[in-house]
Write a structure and sequence with these properties.
Catalytic activity: ATP + protein L-histidine = ADP + protein N-phospho-L-histidine
Helix content: 55-70%
Number of helices: 13
Keywords: ATP-binding, Kinase, Nucleotide-binding, Transferase
Number of strands: 7
Pfam family, one: HATPase_c
Strand content: 5-15%
GO molecular function: ATP binding; phosphorelay sensor kinase activity
EC number: 2.7.13.3
Order of helices and strands: HHHHHHHHEHEEHEEHHEEH
Oligomer: single chain
Amino acid sequence: MLSHILPKAEISIRENLRWLYILRNLMLFAVTFAVFIAVNGLGIELPQNQLWLAIFAISILNLYTWLRLRTPEEVTEHEIFSQICMDVLALAYLLYLTGGASNPIIWVFLLPLIVTAIMLPQAYAWNMVIITSCVYTVLIAYNVPLPAIEPHLAHPAMAELTPEMSLQMHLMNDRRYFNLHVFGMWFGFVFSAGLVAFFVVELSKTLKERERNLADARESALRDERVVSLGTLAASAAHDMGTPLGTIAILTHEMVEDFPEHRYPELYHKLMIVQQQIDRCKQALSVMSASAGEMRAESGKVMLVSEYIDEVLNQWRAHKSATRLKLFVSPNVDMAAKIIAERTVTHSIINILNNAAEASPDDAGIEFHAEWSDDNLFLRIRDFGPGLPAEFIDFAGHQPVKSNKQGMGVGLFLTYTTIKRLGGTIQFSNLDSGGACVEISLPLLAKESIHDQFAYG
């Protein structure tokens, strides 16, 4: 209930009505207990018929609320405010029968005011302030006074009392009534203090949690802003590099024709390597341009997880065929599990594999562990290099690094942002046995979504 202190909380209005139902049950129990103690414990003569009638009316209202919670109709703020107003009228009638403003539990009008301020917008709270203040003012002048708390003597016995004894008895009666009033005020203070402390503590927790959420949102916004800036720079670089790269490709092709393999084998081999690297750069620029602009439809296709892993590894091997890779796939996996194969995720995993391959010695290679459940895909990529610097692990992926000494820079930042954007997680760590380890978790496509896709596709 306390998570919706602010007007635009995410909790539903129906949940507010449910909490109002619970609080009204507590009020019914407290009123019933108070009437029972006053009549049977303190011997106060109260208009019990009228009091039980008011308690019965509150019970009927709560029964209606219980039935209302089981209906599909939408609950409105006006409906909740109307029910709180009925509670105020019921409390006013109970207090009218028991002394009005002189009743020590007159502070009970604070409860509907607090509930209104928590559950409803500010306008309703000020209206409740006006209503409770008016009711309190009316009860000062119009009420049924509480009877004296004393043994009720027969009228002939009262006639035999002397004026001094009668005055002394009235003083004792006033003192007992005053003590009862003081006790009621003490109980009201203790209850109100506990209630205020409870609400303030819960409010503080809610505000701190909201501040954390806002801080995370600001961090995500800053990270996304950096990604957008990098995407803009990438598109600009792809456009600027297209023409000189095409010129280099033409010149390389002419040099290959001028220096045939049978006459210049060593130079011809080097030119072929240059030509392969130029083709790789052109392919990368093409993908960069497509990613910065409109993504192609096949970039988000649905694939089996096993096929997706094979595709990622095949794409990586096309450029890192010399690196040894040890593949470990858990045997206890659902072979029918599917994933949305986005191009950005594929590039993120390949980037991690490239970084691991550059950090590991050629004879050691890297390890690739894969397992998945019904909901998530878990990948673990390990290298056998010197590991990550301790200060690097603290901000790895949160911001681009200035140095590319360990082979991790802007690409790692984009990888981290991409996986976080899709609801996944990525963690970096150094192993005691040596080398660095990257653990990635990606959400899988729910089976219900797959069924819906086939049903409506």
